[in-house]
Specification:
With 136 residues, the protein is mainly α. The protein is built from seven helices and no strands. The chain has one domain. The structure holds fe (ii) ion (FE2). The site of fe (ii) ion has 5 residues, from loops.
Length: 136
């Protein structure tokens, strides 16, 4: 939501993306089809548990389908979804690479550092070390 406020993304789509984009995972490791399964889930739940317009559903489906493909160009709402997910990579011990973020807002040094600090909390609590601990 912090990133969406900067980019002007559709917050309804971003919020639904946050909830469902990894629901199609079959494991927490390599699972290249999980985005497609999440997109299918979005289509299934639209009109029931997911309250979106047709345009919003198209954005949500696109965001889910492509969220682990490394794309950098899309509608601003889709890019915001992808960036929000990438800014949370500290959860699995990965430092986000600014060159792999879509929006200037996500590449902002302060936002990136704050997101990384938040993302590593669970990783640290599980006893893992991090390659990079931001100082600001
Ligand atoms: Fe994912």
């Amino acid at each position: 939501m912090l990133l969406a406020a900067q980019t002007g993304a559709n917050t309804r789509v971003v919020e639904y993306f946050a909830f469902i984009h990894d629901l199609g995972r079959r494991n927490d490791d390599h699972d290249p089809e999980h985005g497609l399964r999440a997109a299918g889930l979005a289509r299934e739940l639209a009109g029931e548990l997911i309250d979106v317009t047709e345009v919003e559903l198209g954005l949500l489906v696109h965001a889910c389908e492509g969220h682990s493909e490394g794309h950098l160009e899309a509608d601003v709402t889709v890019m915001t979804c992808w960036d929000a997910d990438r800014l949370d990579l500290g959860r699995v011990g990965i430092v986000p690479d600014p060159s792999r973020l879509c929006t200037a807002a996500a590449r902002d040094r302060d936002l990136l550092a704050a997101a990384y600090r938040r993302s590593i909390q669970g990783f640290l609590e599980r006893g893992y070390g991090c390659r990079y601990l931001p100082t600001s």
